[in-house]
Amino acid sequence: MHILLVKVSLSYLVHLFTISGVVFSFLALIFAIDQNIPAVFFFLALALFVDGIDGTLARAANVKVHTPNINGEILDNIIDFLNYTFIPSFVIYWCGFVPEGLELLSASIVLIVSCYTFANNTVKTSDFYFSGFPALWNVVILYFYLLNTSALTNFYLILIFAVLTFIPLKYLHPFRVVQLRKTSLFILLLWMLATIVLLYFPQSSKNLITLSYLLWAASNTYFLALTVIRTSKDR
């Protein structure tokens, strides 16, 4: 009986850990209203961290058995929609990322196509790749910000990614895809470190900034290559 109580308690703690993502989402929204973009990305990154490991924790705690009254997948999708789609769409609308007059249209496109992604039962392949652009709008706006792309360029890119939602290119889920998982997680770590330097320490030495951009480019090339390779296998 005591062991069962511990297992049930652990399962609820895992769900609570997942729920923390909605708090990070709310904090990101507060800073987005103030147009404090680095702070927005900080809390979106915390939410991304939670999303990256909560599934592993849930499987380890066997939450489906010990807390059958809570649907962790629905809970996860709600929080993911907030952090991957809703907050980024608000940033696009509110923070001048697209041309004046196109804010509502741009945000609406992001929200609408993302609803399709989250409702699509075939969005993940049997080997856990995403089929179609997986609504990573938090990453999209990060690139807008760091690359300082023009508002018009951002609008066109939003249209392109919206179309890619419906094209079955395969995108890596670094935590779920078994093949090359250790390599992918290492590359993801390098990408994260480079992003931290570029986002929060832009006044660092020229050599460090150059190295960060090189790591950023190399990691993006790696993930793009996996998309091409995995997509080609379906042809």
Question: In words, what does this structure look like?
Answer:
Helix 2 (37-61) runs antiparallel to helix 4. 74% of the residues lie in helices and 2% in strands. It has two domains: 2-171, Four Helix Bundle (Hemerythrin (Met), subunit A) (Up-down Bundle); 172-235. Strands 1-2 form a two-stranded antiparallel sheet. It is an all-alpha fold.
CATH class of the largest domain: Mainly Alpha
Number of E-state strands: 2
Structural class: mainly alpha
Q: What name does the CATH topology of the largest domain carry?
A: Four Helix Bundle (Hemerythrin (Met), subunit A)
CATH architecture of the largest domain: Up-down Bundle
* General shape: globular
Radius of gyration: 19 Å
Order of helices and strands: HHHHHEHHEHH
- Sheet with most strands: strand arrangement: 1-2
- The percentage of residues in β strands lies in under 5%
Low-confidence stretches: none
Helix percent band: over 70%
How many domains make up the 3D coordinates?
A: 2
Q: How many strands, what sense, and barrel or not for the largest sheet?
A: 2 strands, antiparallel
How much is the average pLDDT? Answer: 92
End-to-end separation: 53 Å
Count of alpha/pi helices = 9
